[in-house]
Write a structure and sequence with these properties.
mainly beta; Immunoglobulin-like; elongated; 2 domains
């Protein structure tokens, strides 16, 4: 009888797993903190701020929390407003965005800038029939204002719609500055002996009739130039010019000469290419 009891006691003792093997043992994989994730720390007035909150676990796992589980707060509602528990850029300035989850809190600095004045951005020069290498073409965009302008999300395309380029995040043209978009940066270097700020766009321009279009992020047109009458899809409109101007011979650029945009060929001339100058 004593032997049987001893065996039963031994079996019962061995049947229980070690405490560390319990699947719900929070001591093994407890949340140690939270982190706020935003794609950028700078937003324009009116932008939604796509912030998410991530839970950090002891074993290194990161888990994105649902927005309903997180309480958002701002240090300045005039800069970063919380609307229906979602952050939004409300006014120019800086603010701290807070996330609260259970007993954890985290903050991230947010900068809100004035919305870009796209009316001050113009196509300034188009080199569409290079002297040496055919793919040394470039398009230059000018900022005609006294403030830096972020043109992220804006795009350049040729009229046929086969080629376009969208400016990436943090593409900023300084006050009265210029930015060069090459078709091929290596060929551009061969002709002009320096590399432009932006990489190759692969935008290929026609040498006898082309339209170049600069658009806002929402797709509306900021500026447009009709070269040698434009192209089939976007021909020059009535009122642009009495003849097919500007018309740049090989090795020359169509260059803007008027900072006040009249949307006619009178804004343009033909000159030696001067990228970045």
């Amino acid at each position: 009888m004593r032997f049987a009891i001893a065996v039963m006691f031994t079996l019962c003792t061995c049947a229980y797993p070690a405490p560390s093997n319990y699947p719900n043992d929070t001591s093994v994989n407890a949340i140690t903190g939270i982190e706020i994730i935003v794609p950028s720390r700078e937003f324009a007035v009116g932008d939604d701020i796509p912030a998410t909150c991530v839970a950090l676990y002891a074993d290194g796992i990161r888990k994105t929390l649902s927005n309903d589980a997180v309480q958002w707060e701002s240090s300045d509602q005039q800069v970063c407003a919380i609307v229906e528990n979602k952050p939004r850029a409300a006014g120019k300035g800086r603010a701290l965005l807070y996330a609260h989850y259970e007993s954890f809190s985290e903050a991230k600095s947010i900068s809100v800038i004035a919305p870009p004045d796209y009316s001050k951005i113009l196509i300034g020069e188009v080199y569409y029939d290079p002297a040496q290498l055919a793919d040394a073409e470039f398009i230059e965009v000018w900022n005609t204002s006294d403030e830096d302008i972020d043109i992220r999300g804006c795009s350049i395309s040729e009229g046929g719609g086969l080629y376009s380029w969208t400016f990436p995040a943090d593409t900023i043209i300084s006050a009265y500055g210029k930015i060069v978009l090459p078709r091929n940066s290596e060929s551009f270097f061969q002709e002009f002996k320096f590399y432009p700020e932006l990489p190759s766009s692969n935008i290929t321009l026609g040498n006898s009739g082309e339209t170049v279009i600069l658009k806002k992020p929402d797709g509306s047109i900021i500026d447009i130039v009709f070269l040698e009458g434009g192209d089939v899809k976007y021909p020059q409109p009535i009122g642009w010019c009495a003849s097919n101007l500007p018309n740049a011979p090989k090795g020359y650029s169509a260059t803007r000469v008027a900072l006040q945009n009249s949307s006619t060929c009178a804004d343009w001339d033909v000159r030696q290419p001067t990228p970045g100058e």
